[in-house]
Amino acid sequence: MFEAKELEKKKLSELYEIAKELAIENYEEMRKKELIEKILEHQAALNGIKYCEGVLEIIEQEKEGEKGRKSIFGFLRRKEKNYAPSDDDIYVSYATIKSYGLREGDHIVGYAKKLKEGDKSMALTQIERINGRLPDELKSRPQFEELVPFYPTRKFKLELPNENDISMRIVDLFVPIGMGQRGLIVSPPRAGKTVLLQKIANSILKNHRDEVKLIVLLIDERPEEVTDFKRNVDADEIISSTFDMPAERHTKVAEIVLERAKRLVELGENVVILLDSLTRLARAYNVVTPHSGRTLSGGIDSTALVKPKKF
């Protein structure tokens, strides 16, 4: 059984031979990375285990009958399902989390199987990649909170050549956006805020695709607006929690996306998060946060703004 690092060292012609033996269809049309994933998936199926990937969500639950003691475990959530819990999520034990030094938001690729008859979920038994790196390479990674914040030194170029629309040139001239900068669009309803966000996203993708990971987070939006974003923006990830979801779901999705971005930054990557909208996220936190008794204007609890500010 081949491991990912073995396959990566092989030439494409050698991978074709392996794919042929495993009866993988259309293997000659695949790129090397896609072909390696298919080989891992097929050989796992032949050995009665499942090739899996997902973003880690760590859960803490108080143990029944043991007040003050918590059990810690995790699940691999799928971005295709907007990191929502599902029946085919892979269970990750505390022992695995501790031994590999896993953190919430880590993207994990590995193998899983059912440890006991009657288990509802498959359990992660072997890890091949963490955030695209070998597990040994991440032993000395820094903590996000220990990184040094500083003012932006590089600017995003948003203007696109041969475009009749000059809105991105105006942004470049009057409100330039730097790498590492926080920005806020203040806009009345129906003024074109979402369209402007889409244009910013597409400009970043066209001018800075190789140096930036773009994540779009849509909170409390209509499903048709989510579809419109997916059709018009080819971002690395478009994660959504639509208006029919509870406030708890909005806040959890936002927290996983933020942790995902932190894990990438810890590895030296540049990440852009476009959030639509911060107002709705703040409202969601206002619903789920225990009330402190201090209410600000607009009926917002004073403690409800702590996490949106952190975002």
Automatic annotation (TrEMBL):
<keyword id="KW-0347">Helicase</keyword>
<dbReference type="InterPro" id="IPR036269">
    <property type="entry name" value="Rho_N_sf"/>
</dbReference>
<dbReference type="GO" id="GO:0003723">
    <property type="term" value="F:RNA binding"/>
</dbReference>
<dbReference type="InterPro" id="IPR011113">
    <property type="entry name" value="Rho_RNA-bd"/>
</dbReference>
<dbReference type="InterPro" id="IPR011112">
    <property type="entry name" value="Rho-like_N"/>
</dbReference>
<keyword id="KW-0694">RNA-binding</keyword>
<keyword id="KW-0067">ATP-binding</keyword>
<dbReference type="GO" id="GO:0016787">
    <property type="term" value="F:hydrolase activity"/>
</dbReference>
<keyword id="KW-0378">Hydrolase</keyword>
<protein>
    <submittedName>
        <fullName>Transcription termination factor Rho</fullName>
    </submittedName>
</protein>
<feature type="domain" description="Rho RNA-BD">
    <location>
        <begin position="49"/>
        <end position="134"/>
    </location>
</feature>
<dbReference type="GO" id="GO:0006353">
    <property type="term" value="P:DNA-templated transcription termination"/>
</dbReference>
<dbReference type="InterPro" id="IPR027417">
    <property type="entry name" value="P-loop_NTPase"/>
</dbReference>
<dbReference type="Pfam" id="PF07497">
    <property type="entry name" value="Rho_RNA_bind"/>
</dbReference>
<keyword id="KW-0547">Nucleotide-binding</keyword>
<dbReference type="Pfam" id="PF00006">
    <property type="entry name" value="ATP-synt_ab"/>
</dbReference>
<dbReference type="GO" id="GO:0008186">
    <property type="term" value="F:ATP-dependent activity, acting on RNA"/>
</dbReference>
<comment type="similarity">
    <text>Belongs to the Rho family.</text>
</comment>
<keyword id="KW-0805">Transcription regulation</keyword>
<dbReference type="GO" id="GO:0005524">
    <property type="term" value="F:ATP binding"/>
</dbReference>
<dbReference type="InterPro" id="IPR000194">
    <property type="entry name" value="ATPase_F1/V1/A1_a/bsu_nucl-bd"/>
</dbReference>
<dbReference type="InterPro" id="IPR012340">
    <property type="entry name" value="NA-bd_OB-fold"/>
</dbReference>
<dbReference type="GO" id="GO:0004386">
    <property type="term" value="F:helicase activity"/>
</dbReference>
<dbReference type="InterPro" id="IPR004665">
    <property type="entry name" value="Term_rho"/>
</dbReference>
<dbReference type="Pfam" id="PF07498">
    <property type="entry name" value="Rho_N"/>
</dbReference>
<keyword id="KW-0804">Transcription</keyword>
